[in-house]
Specification:
This protein has 338 residues and is mainly alpha-helical. It contains 13 helices and five strands. Bound molecules: tryptophanyl-5'AMP.
Length: 338
């Protein structure tokens, strides 16, 4: 428990390491839009996280614009929320160093995403990839953010952020200095799976372009990808229990439900007993209806990188005002000379 009594704030981040897909939209960005009316929100394109693995510099810049443009196209309003690039706010890196000295090696050794990413080739991984979750904790706590909208895959990183906040508060005898940030994960779309393999997460790094629906896909591409999605030969069940052991069917039903605002049970009440020959065209239409207009706006914004750059730089200034103040307080607590 933290005795934190400060204002509620929301922060989240997305890596500019590939195209923005349906999983990012349902797991994260859609929540960003919902939260901006009720909270102070900070939405960050985490370019410093992206370089923990090699990124072509020109491509990194382009992808950073792409992610920022996706925020805007999906409805994040720069008048309500700060939209910025992580490297544009120096305080993230400054706090990350201090947190590197708070976090324990044992905590990082337990991070499953690191283990999954490096496999057997740990020796060749960057040091940054290992301390990645520490920088993530700094992203959140440099704003004293209390709520973090993310997909399910970020759960362990959020737990680490809470551990770091708690240990800092304890070590520097400052109860309530940092909040223990709450992950906002629940809800449909928290874990969208690949269209080619219902047991693997939909991911920017999937080598198959057909595994993801990207926000930039036009309506024909969306329809083609849904048509090609892996399924099984059986009809859809009438009850949710019938999805057990049918990962691909469960994923497609989940996507339809998340986009239409219906529960899985309601989707099955409508489509139970029907084959994929009926369900897939309905799903393709639903995805095209919800994602198609975002893609149109995304293409319009991407044609105007100067506008997007302006939003990022303005957002970075707004964010820096909050973050610099927190870092000043941290330095004071740690004992650095002001
Ligand atoms: P990243 O860039 O991999 O993903 C961005 C957001 O999208 C969510 N997401 C998904 N949600 C549902 N189904 C999926 N298949 C799916 N794939 C991705 C992620 O959960 C995430 O919310 N480490 C973070 C970036 C980060 C961050 C932060 C997040 C850096 N600093 C501070 C929150 C707060 C990441 O790699 O996300």
């Amino acid at each position: 428990m933290s005795d934190y009594k400060g204002p509620e704030r929301v922060l989240s981040g997305i890596q500019p390491s590939g195209g923005m897909h349906l999983g990012n939209y349902l797991g994260a960005i859609r929540k960003f839009v919902e939260l901006q009316d009720r909270h102070d929100c900070f939405y960050c394109v985490v370019d410093m996280h992206a370089i923990t693995v090699w990124q072509d510099p020109a491509k990194l810049r382009e992808q950073t614009f792409h992610i920022a443009a996706s925020f805007l196209a999906a409805g994040v309003d720069p008048k309500k929320a700060a939209i910025f690039h992580q490297s544009g706010v120096r305080a993230h890196a400054e706090l990350a160093w201090i947190f590197n000295c708070v976090a324990r090696l044992g905590w990082l050794d337990r991070m499953t995403q690191f283990k999954d990413k490096v496999g057997k080739d740990k020796e060749r991984a960057s040091v940054g990839l290992y301390t990645y979750p520490v920088l993530q904790a700094a992203d959140i706590l440099v704003y004293k953010a209390t709520h973090v909208p993310v997909g399910e895959d970020q759960k362990q990183h959020l737990e680490l952020s809470r551990d770091i906040a708690g240990k800092f508060n304890h070590d520097f005898d400052a109860p309530g200095f940092f909040p223990l940030p709450e992950p906002l994960i629940k809800g449909p779309g928290a874990r969208v799976m690949s269209l080619r393999d219902g047991t693997a997460k939909m991911s920017k790094s999937d080598p198959s372009a057909n595994a993801c629906v990207y926000l930039s896909d036009d309506r024909d591409t969306i329809a083609r990808k849904i048509k090609k999605a892996k399924t099984d030969p059986d009809a859809l069940p009438s009850e949710v229990a019938g999805l057990e052991g049918r990962a691909e069917a469960a994923n497609l039903v989940g996507i339809y439900g998340a986009l239409s605002g219906k529960s899985d049970a309601d989707v099955l009440a409508e489509f139970g007993g029907q084959g994929f020959g009926v369900f897939k065209p309905a799903l393709a239409e639903m995805v095209a209806e919800k994602i198609g207009p975002i893609g149109d706006e995304l293409r319009r914004l991407e044609a105007d990188p100067d506008y997007v750059r302006g939003i990022l730089c303005e957002g970075a200034q707004t964010a820096s005002v909050v973050a610099d103040k927190v870092v000043d307080e941290v330095k004071q607590a740690v004992g650095f000379v002001a």
